[in-house]
Amino acid sequence: MSTERSLGEEKDGRSATPVVLVVDDDEDLADTCEYWLRDDYDVRVAYGGEAALDQVDETVDVVLLDRRMPNVSGDDVLEALRDRGLDCHVAMMTAVEPDTDIVDMPFDDYLVKPVTKTDVREAVDELVVRSDFDEEVREFFALESTESALETRDVDDLRDPEVLSELREQVEAVRRGQADEIEKRQRQLDRLHHINDLLREVDRALVDATTREEIEETVCESLASFDAYTAAWVARYSDAVNAVTCRTSAGVAPPRLNGTAEAVTPVVRTALQERQVQLVDEVSAEHFAAVFESDETVPSGLDRETLSAVIVPVAYRDTAYGALVVYTDRAESLGEDDRTVFEELGATIGHGINAAESKRLLYSDTAVELEFSHEDRDDLFVDLSATLGCRVTLQGFSPAADGGISCYLSTADADAEAVLEYFTTHESVENARTITDGPEESMFEVRITGTGSTVLGPLIEFGASVNTLTATNGEGSLAVTVSPDADLRVLSDTVRSAFPAVEVVAKREVEQSVQSTETFKRELEDKLTSRQHDVLETAFVSGYFDWPRGSTAEEVAESLGISAPTFHEHLRSGERKLMEAFFEETAESATTEKRRVTNN
Asked: Where 4-aspartylphosphate occurs, residue numbers (predicted)?
């Protein structure tokens, strides 16, 4: 969703995020509208007219108002809002069919139930944008909304058809008086609806796609299907040879790129390196010569004289998957609004690819295992092993919602106090504690802020599964598992951009246990909530299940940011589900084995 009031701005003392009040005595519908809008707005809900008048104030931007409510009707609420002088937009949302009595009602839009998610979101989006219009222009769009509502009825069914004729004349009179401004604002609203349609279309495409290839294909096809865009393709850039290749395209035959052509490669490289959308207002002949076979042949549907392009980095955190190149022959020039929309689009696609590849790894029978040598001292654990001349072994880790990582590691050949002192003086370590201090090996919990101080950061963001990470005297090794169709070049580039001294030394295809991934693990993860999963994993790697315990319940709860009673509640629930999944699975295995023996 894109509105004129950007986050971080405030207007007339109102919140930076627009406030919407949903008023309906149908609690299910009111709650549904709240669910539809809450990602983009600060939503309040009132289950009736009296509650609405108690909650509404000068901070409310938009009111979705049902007309037919007991005690205090929607018409009464609307009148009270205007009597109080509240400058909020009101959309009547009702099953009452409009009639000419609504002409004198001071609302801004009229929605007839049943309403859809698109109806509600588009109405609210538009009303928020209208708040910046001049008063006369706001009046015009309110009158036009009333006219549109009445035109849904047969004229003969209206109480007073003459009123509709008078309203039409009034609308035209206002239009003539503010023609230029109204035309400008209408283009703005049309653009708003186009943007939201585009983002929703891509969101729908991402829901159905299960692989990176499907995501890229559906996104290109979705963009090419819009009238405003003539073609789209996904570019893959190689830093090693400074060249661009095409992964997929729609609306145009796959580009036949001429290697390091200067017209296209630099702009794709800039988009990926700076993580910023690049706008090209006029696509040059050199661009076509670079992208397609020659300057003589322009692909069908593309008019070079009127064409502009948008180059969008597709990335998830530090991982760059490529660039989306979109052509448009829109009359107006590309601007900052386009940049904002496509930035959101690139982030959405990147997140979708990351999720698809992580899911693919989880459910695939086969996987690719990569082994790295790791001697980059910018990594916290490699530097620790070099500084203290010890061996460091990662035992487990848990990414946090704020971007940090809780790590559990063991050290050998190093004094525990010296290790703890190293961590407490390191700028990227938020806190650290000793779990066990043994004569041969010690265990530590380390909370790292951000992801830039360890190679775990880019690996987590890519969606790779980290199998082992060890370092001895500054020389480390790392093994990770990724899905069989993962882009290994992107993974390598992502890791090496942050840690140049990391090198791939081996690649092998491995089989994953059918039982663990396809049955037991999937079944268990379906049973566990995300919080129960985090509690069980953190308790395990922190030594809570050891005897004597390496961590107390209070210490584990503190590392998770929850209370000890809440920790115990999640732990017990998770343990019960773990046992259920285990015994159900082993019972099935025993039955299968019994059948096999019997058959033999």
From this structure: 66
Residues 6+ apart with CB under 8 A from 526: none
What percentage of the chain exceeds 70 in pLDDT?
82
Global confidence as pTM: 0.53
Query: With contact defined as beta carbons under 8 Å apart, do 230 and 326 qualify?
Result: no
CB 397 within 8 A of CB 377: no
The rounded distance, in Å, linking the Cα atoms of 44 and 55 is 8
Maximum separation of any 2 CA atoms in the chain, in Å: 96
Q: What's the pLDDT at 389?
A: 95
Enumerate the H helices of 425-520 as residue ranges.
456-462, 488-498, 514
Q: Is the Cβ–Cβ distance between 380 and 428 less than 8 Å?
A: yes
Q: In the chain, which stretches have pLDDT less than 50?
A: 1-9, 11, 13, 259-260, 294-297, 514-517, 586-600
Q: Which tokens hold the place of 282?
A: 């006029």
Q: What is the 3-state secondary structure (H, E, C) of 506-530?
A: EEEEEECCHHHHHHHHHHHHHHCCH
| Region label for 550, one of left (φ > 0), alpha (ψ between -120 and 50) or beta (otherwise) | alpha
Residue 362: enclosing H or E segment and its boundaries? helix 336-363
| ∠ CA 474-480-482, rounded to 5° | 155
Dump strand ranges (E) for 204-270: 229-238, 243-250
Distance in angstroms between the alpha carbons of the first and the last residue of the chain: 64
For residue 173, the Cα-to-chain-centroid distance in whole angstroms is: 45
The residues near 232 (Cβ < 8 Å, ≥ 6 apart) are 219, 220, 223, 224, 249, 250, 251, 324, 325, 326, 327
Residue 591 CA to residue 600 CA, distance in Å, equals 14
Helix, strand, or coil (residue 167): helix
What is the rounded CA–CA span in Å between residue 411 and residue 478?
16
| Token pair listed for 32 | 């549904």
Q: How far apart are CA 216 and CA 221, in angstroms?
A: 9
Query: What is the tens place of the pLDDT at every residue in 221-268?
Result: 888 877 778 888 888 887 767 778 888 888 766 666 654 456 678 888
Residue 571 makes CB contacts below 8 A (sequence gap 6+) with: 532, 535, 536, 539, 553
Residue with tokens 């315990």: 549
Q: Which two tokens stand for residue 469?
A: 């990470």
Bridge partners, 470 (sequence order): 393, 477
